[in-house]
């Protein structure tokens, strides 16, 4: 799978493979349509507010959108987050996780995935509520 071996540009300008971002048990990847929009801001903040609990369960978090680095960097600073935002401008992750139904993501494409430390899928949440689904995600860890 191409998405497992790619180096992704992050909001801070660094490049990492997903395997370098995984916590002891795995990683939560959440896909959001557009940085700095209302519901995406709410979602990013929900993950930040629950980050210590997620980390205590052995998982890391990364947000994914097709936004460019400058947009992701601004968004991360606005929300004061302590996890990475992936700039998936070539849509490798979006296509790999089948989270895009056209050329640009929509609210219907909002999805979250729990992956184990080998990047194998444990659970998926599709067409989710930007705020409420965090409870379901934590419940599956």
From TrEMBL:
GO terms for biological process: cell redox homeostasis; cellular response to oxidative stress. One of its GO terms (molecular function) is thioredoxin peroxidase activity. Residues 12-118 form the Alkyl hydroperoxide reductase subunit C/ Thiol specific antioxidant domain. GO terms for cellular component: cytoplasm. SUPFAM superfamilies: Thioredoxin-like (SSF52833). Keywords: Antioxidant, Disulfide bond, Oxidoreductase, Peroxidase, Redox-active center. The keyword Metal-binding does not apply. InterPro entries: AhpC/TSA (IPR000866), Peroxiredoxin_BCP/PrxQ (IPR050924), Thioredoxin-like_sf (IPR036249). CDD domains: PRX_BCP (cd03017). PANTHER family: AHPC_TSA FAMILY PROTEIN (PTHR42801:SF4), THIOREDOXIN-DEPENDENT PEROXIDE REDUCTASE (PTHR42801). Thiol-specific peroxidase that catalyzes the reduction of hydrogen peroxide and organic hydroperoxides to water and alcohols, respectively. Plays a role in cell protection against oxidative stress by detoxifying peroxides and as sensor of hydrogen peroxide-mediated signaling events. This is Bacterioferritin comigratory protein.
């Amino acid at each position: 799978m191409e998405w497992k071996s790619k180096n992704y540009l992050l909001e801070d300008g660094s490049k990492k493979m997903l395997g370098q971002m995984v916590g002891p048990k795995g990683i939560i990847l959440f896909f959001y349509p557009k940085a700095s929009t209302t519901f995406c801001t709410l979602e990013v903040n929900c993950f930040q507010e629950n980050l210590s609990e997620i980390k205590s369960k052995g998982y890391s978090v990364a947000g994914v959108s097709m936004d460019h680095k400058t947009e992701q960097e601004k968004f991360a600073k606005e929300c004061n987050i302590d996890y990475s935002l992936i700039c998936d401008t070539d849509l490798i992750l979006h296509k790999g996780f089948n989270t895009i139904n056209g050329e640009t993501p929509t609210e219907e494409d909002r999805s979250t995935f729990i992956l184990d430390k080998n990047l194998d899928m444990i659970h998926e949440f599709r067409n989710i509520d930007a705020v409420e689904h965090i409870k379901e995600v934590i419940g599956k860890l």
